[in-house]
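Case study B.
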Amino acid sequence: MLDLSRLSYISSASLRILMILSRKVKSQQGVIAVATMQPVVREIFDISKFTFVLPCFGSVAEALSRPMP
Amino acid sequence: MTILVRIWGCRGSLPVATNTGKLRARLIAALQAAQGRKLASREEIIRFMDAELDFAVTHSFGGNTSCVEIESGGSDHVACDLGSGAREFGNSVLAGREPGKPGTFHFFLSHLHWDHIMGFPFFAPAYLPGNRIYIYGCHSNLEEGFQRQQHPHHFPVQLSQMAADIRFVRLETGVATEAAGFRVTPKLQQHSGDSYGYRFEKDGKAIVYSTDSEHKLEQTGHTQTFVEFFRDADLVLFDAMYSLADTVSVKKDWGHSSNIVGVELCQMAGAKHLCLFHHEPIYGDDQLETLWRDSQRLEEITRSGRPLRISSACDGMEILV
Ligand SMILES: [Zn+2]
Ligand SMILES: [Zn+2]
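Model:
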């Protein structure tokens, strides 16, 4: 679980690294999710369509309350 | 001096056409919006269309594959790629010229994938004696690619039977050449079988044509070379075929890029105008409009210096540089 509350901007390079990380974790039956994005970061996730590939949550508590695949 | 750039084809991979169903859907949307309105004159209708109808109802991004003309200001014609858009380009040149008067054409080829050469057999000036056509590229098999496309298995007229004087000119990445008053510098790009971008410079203006190119911006060396290539460009035509998520997952290593990377590279390079290009053939006009608006929004929220203008290529679009 990545708490992004202190992140004010995210570049394509960082998103790519996040994807590589997510794939690594998946191969070990884990999952990476992100939570508490600031509005700008949330918009970048929307525009890049990363919201479709990484589970995104409003808060860490909400994320942890969901069953993870 | 102003340079005019004209898009004859902006679609990636495969030409697309509209159909009756899509046309009727647009008509229905327009007529519904016009209900109760008194649109008595042509001018009133145009005003209503421009002010009140959605962009995707009144516009089409077009369906021809890559072909972009850069007016030289002289009598020679300059263009990038020979996708299906080259057919209309050739016809328009012939329509505007007095019959029998020969012309000279300079085409800069990104690569030999079919969508970038398929227009040549339909490029009418190639059939007329007296015309001179230079095809520039960095691939060693440049001429062979064109010969194969017109092998009798695929097309009735062979390349050698075309009446124009057709010459292939091999360029080297990073080494500038002069053509029709432009200084043109090719750059190697990441794409299956390699592709090349071109930077055109003239009278202090710079136009970059960079399609079919994949970027991995966490590789800083790679990024820096493209930032230099795009540096202070007045216009960058950029492969924005897929979403960033696609280019790093299912379409990784497919050799294309995204709107996000286009915005970032142009911002880093201080470019003035980004034109999204090589549209995914699956996307309809509404999806392409969303992609364009999203890119504008991204530029707005990530802007640190001078604003970057963002447009999305449509067939027939003219850009003044
Ligand atoms: Zn292509
Ligand atoms: Zn290609």
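Chain B is about 30% helix and 25% strand. The remaining cases will be described in the next quarterly update.
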